Amino acid sequence: MNNVSYELRDKDKATAIIEEAMKKAAKKITKGHVATYIPELGKVDPNQLGICVLPVEGEKICLGDYDKRFTIQSVSKIIMLIMALEICGIDRVTEIVGAEPSGEAFNSLVELDREDSRPYNPLINSGAIAVCGMLIDEISFQDMLRFTRKICCDEDIFMDRDVFESEMRTCSRNKSIAYLLESKNIIKSDVDDTLKFYTKCCSMSVTAESLAHMARVLANDGVSMVSKKRFMSSRTARIVKTLMLTCGMYDGSGTFAITVGIPSKSGVGGGLMSVSDKRAGIGVFSPALDSKGNSIAGVDLLGRIASKLRLNLFYDPEWTKDDHETVGKEIIQT
Ligand code: GLN
Question: Model-level pTM greater than 0.85?
C-alpha cells in the first residue's frame, strides 16, 4: 500500500471523510468571532465553511462555501515572499527579515524597538511590511494582482476597495510598524506607498479554490499542474513551505504543527492555505477566528482530515482527531 495520499486517490471515500469532518468542525464556528479591527470584515457572515482539495494526482474535491469570495489578508504574505525571493534574491531578503518564529501576535511591534533587530520572519505584519518596502521599488500592485490571478488560476480576483479603504482608515498599528522600520533603515522607500501596497495585497478577493491552486503549485515544487508553467524556483518553494510550517499560524504555529501538521498560512479574512507536500494543495474558508486570528472551524477541519487523508508531514498511523492513545508506563519495559 502506498502511504502517500492513498486516500485522496479514492475521491468518494475522501469526500465522505471531509463531509463528516465538516459537520463536526462547523460546530466550532460559534466559539469564534469575525475580525472587527478592520470594520468592513466585521460585516461578514461567520456561518460559512468551505474547502477545496486539489491533489497532485487525483480529482479535485470542493465542498461547502469553497467558491465564496473573501479577502486574502495575511495569506498574501506568501505571495509577497515568493516575489521578493524571486526578484530580489535571498540575500537581500535576509538582510531585512529573519526566519524565526516570533511567539508574538501577528501585529506585534515589540521586537522592533530593540537596537539592531529585524522582524522575526516574513509571515507576520512587520516582516511582510518590510518585504513590501523592498518590493515596491521593483513591481507595482498591478504586477502583484496579475501574478496572483495566474498562480491561483483565478482571473476574477480583484482588489476589494471597501476592505482596503476600511483597513487604511484603521491601520495605526501597521503604520507604527512601518515608521519603526523606516527609523531602522529597513524600509528605505516611501512609508505611505509601502503601506498602501501591503494593504492592497491583503485586500485581494479570493476563494478557497484559488488558495488551493496556489498551494498545489507549492506542493509541486513551484510548477503549476494546470499550465505546467514554473512560477518559482524549487528553492523558493522549499523556503516558503518551511516558513509556513514554523511561522505560518503566528504564535499558534507550534500547536498547529502538532494538531494538524501541514504547512499552512492563515489570514484574518478566514482563509487558510495548506500545502501537503507532493500530495495536495488545500484552501479553506471560514471567517470566525480564534484568539490568535486563525480560522477556528478551518483549523479544526484540517486537524480532522490531516491524518485520515494522510496529508500531514509526520504521519502517525494510530492518530485520529477523536482518539488519542499513549503507550503509558509500558514504554519503560521496551
Ligand atoms: N491586513 C491585516 C493586517 O495587516 C492582515 C493580518 C492577518 O491576516 N493576520 O492586520
Answer: yes
